[in-house]
Amino acid sequence: MTTRSELRAQRQEKVEKPIEETPEKRHFLYCLWGVICVTLLGLTLLINSTLLNVNFVKEEVTSSSLESVMLSQVNSSLTQYGISTSVLKKSDTDKLINQAIDQVYAGEKINLDLSPIVNNVGTSVNSQLAQYGLSTSMLPAGSSSAIAGNINSMVNSQLNTPEVAQLINGIKIAKTVVNIILVISIISLVLLILKGLWQHHLIGSFRWICLWGTVLYTGIVMTIHAITLQMGAGQPDISPFISQVANDFQQTGFHGSMMLIVISIVLFILQFVKRKWQPRQ
């Protein structure tokens, strides 16, 4: 026959059982939110250091075949005025492209200044006339500045296409969204760290958060790389450039993965040392 004390103990077990399960559920949600925050933090830092980084884009464009595609539009305007494309040096080309990229990432329309190139041509013409004993005053006054203005207007109108306007607007939106997610993920991680310190499970939780965050982050980076290559295959004109950017994006992303792996290993070691040290105290 069950005594009164045994019945009281059984009732107490039924009441305490859900109370014991609640911390485990909260701990799981804590780690899940931590994994999401670590992944978002890594992705936003990666995007800010690559696709939204003007220096990264400059390096990608000036070291790819896309440079010649963009230069062809400039050359077509120069030849209409009898200016040989040979006057454009590699340094001049890089300067024009960097100028255009700076303006696009600053949210401005492309406004290239080709006056130095036209002036160089004018200087060359003046020196040739002088060799034949002809005065440079025979040329119409202000002709070079007028030609430069016409060339600037023509080139810039060809470059400022609706697609470029959409790109400028897209970069603005992307910067805003990425920075908002970055701030939210940083604040969330700080709160999680404080909570982990308060509840004395920071190292034990964050070793798994960093580990699974690394797996999720790396998987997303590889997925973006694969999708980008597939999309670039349908655009043969710029396919090499897209492949180059996608590969460099993934390579930079893998650097972030290595950092997360190192942090995870350090946390696992600290947790191991902590468990070995506690029984001795």
Indicate the topology.
Layout: H1 4-49, H2 54-62, H3 66-80, H4 90-105, H5 115-131, H6 143-159, H7 162-198, H8 202-232, H9 239-277
Structure description:
Keywords: Membrane, Transmembrane, Transmembrane helix. With 281 residues, the protein is mainly α. The protein folds into two domains: 124 residues, no CATH class; 110 residues, no CATH class. It contains nine helices and no strands. The radius of gyration is 31 Å and the shape is elongated.
Descriptive terms for the model:
single chain; about 280 residues; 2 domains; 9 helices
Cα Rg: 31 Å
Number of domains: 2
Strand and helix order: HHHHHHHHH
The computed structural class is mainly alpha
- Average of pLDDT: 80
Largest sheet: none
Number of helices: 9
Number of strands: 0
Distance between the termini: 45 Å
The portion of residues assigned to helices is over 70%
Low-confidence stretches: 15-22, 123-136
- Overall shape: it is elongated
**Strand residue content:** under 5%
